[in-house]
Amino acid sequence: MALAKLPKKQEIPKETNKPTAASERAVDAFINRAPDGVEGKKIRGNRKKSVLITITLDPELLSEFDALVEDTGISRASAIKALLRKAVKNGSLL
């Protein structure tokens, strides 16, 4: 009985996980459209960019303020903005 050579192993091409240029562009475009992306940071139209602030208030004061605001029909944020604009315009908080 003659010894036979083992067959050569077939080489399986390694898959590359490298993204294509088109998929990279698609990913970049998606990210840039996010609110904190490059395009999301652009100011659209004449709208000015707002800044988010956080304040801590006494719950009772907030309830009283909300009751006043409710009678005006405007939002709490709009009322606070109006009061801040008035104070800045007058140059005085009181």
Question: How many helices in DSSP terms?
Answer: 3
Structural class: mainly alpha
Share of helical residues: 40-55%
**Beta-strand fraction estimate:** under 5%
DSSP, total strands: 0
Element string (H = helix, E = strand): HHH
Low-confidence stretches: none
Distance between the termini: 109 Å
How would you describe the shape? Answer: rod-shaped
Radius of gyration: 31 Å
Main sheet properties: none
Mean pLDDT: 81
Could you walk me through the main structural features you see in this protein, from its secondary elements to its overall organization?
- The chain is mostly helical.
- The chain has a domain of 44 residues.
- Helix content is 44%, strand content 0%.
- It starts with 20 loop residues before the first helix and ends with a helix.
- The model has no long low-confidence stretch (mean pLDDT 81).
Write the layout of secondary structure elements.
Elements: H1 21-32, H2 59-72, H3 76-90
Features:
94 residues; mainly alpha; 3 helices; 44% helix; rod-shaped
Brief summary:
Helices cover 44% and strands 0% of the residues. With 94 residues, it is an all-alpha fold.
